[in-house]
Amino acid sequence: MNRFLRVFALILCVVLPLCSCDLFSLSGEKIDESAFDFETQLSPPQPGEEIAVVTTTEGVIKMKFFPQYAPQAVENFKQLAADGFYNDTYVFCVQPDMAFMAGSPAQDGSVYKSIFNDGKPFDVEYSDAIWHFSGSVSALSDQKDKADSRFFMLGNYKTDEDTLKKMERSGYPEALIEKYRTVGGAPALDRRYTVFAQAYEGLEVIDAINAAEIDTETGFPKKEIKIISVKITKA
């Protein structure tokens, strides 16, 4: 399978699980409620905390990192940003009104980079502390259970009642269900992709990108949308 087809398959993997009957299978893994760290994830950064300023053709997004929960993904993103890798790269896929994918210098998303494993993707990192709430930023790859330079940002995405009921039936903790009900997000992506950051400013920019007109066959935006620069700085 060529790179384009693998990327397209990845897009399907992100979208289709949202409709799957068994999308909330915990695979025998119990969620550790004592690990929940909703306040850290959803609060603005502390003064002096390291952040990223992501300047796009549609506006500026600011995000905070979670090195304590996803150290490799955070280190990979920060180093690539410092090296200028993300400058002048593409938003290569949009799932309408939900999320956009970025982090590739190729318009079809087929080119990536990693600071680990001689440039190859690295293992995903899961934590019961942080979740795919609205505004979350997650690493992805076209290889199963791997991550690289590519990532996706969730916008203001309402978690519908049917999804919340599926979570209840699957035994999700009530506190997590209620947080998804309150702030929104995509629980179907949990334990599939690595949440490594959270957008705390510029969610309206994410929503604007997610509202872009797309080619329905490929998911590519019809209008060129780019990341102009990513700067690592302090809050």
Structural class, please? alpha+beta
By CATH, the topology is: Cyclophilin
Question: What overall geometry do the principal axes of the alpha carbons give?
Answer: globular
Helix content: 10-25%
> How much strand?
15-25%
**Oligomeric state of the chains present here:** single chain
| Separation, N- and C-terminal Cα atoms | 43 Å
Tell me the CATH superfamily.
Cyclophilin-like
Per-chain topology:
Layout: H1 3-15, H2 38-42, E1 50-56, E2 59-65, H3 71-82, E3 89-95, E4 99-104, E5 122-123, E6 136-139, E7 146-147, E8 151-154, H4 161-169, H5 174-183, E9 194-201, H6 203-210, E10 226-234
Antiparallel strand pairs: 1-2, 1-10, 2-9, 3-4, 3-10, 4-8, 5-7, 6-8, 6-9
Structure notes:
The longest helix is centred in the N-terminal third of the chain and has 13 residues, at 3-15. A hairpin with a 2-residue loop joins strand 1 and strand 2. The N and C termini lie far apart (43 Å). The protein has a single domain (3-19, 35-230), classed as Cyclophilin-like (Cyclophilin, Beta Barrel). The protein has 235 residues and is α+β, with helices and mostly antiparallel strands. Helix 4 (161-169) packs antiparallel against helix 5 (174-183). The chain contains six helices and ten strands, in the order H-H-E-E-H-E-E-E-E-E-E-H-H-E-H-E. It has an eight-stranded antiparallel beta barrel. Strands 5-7 form a two-stranded antiparallel sheet.
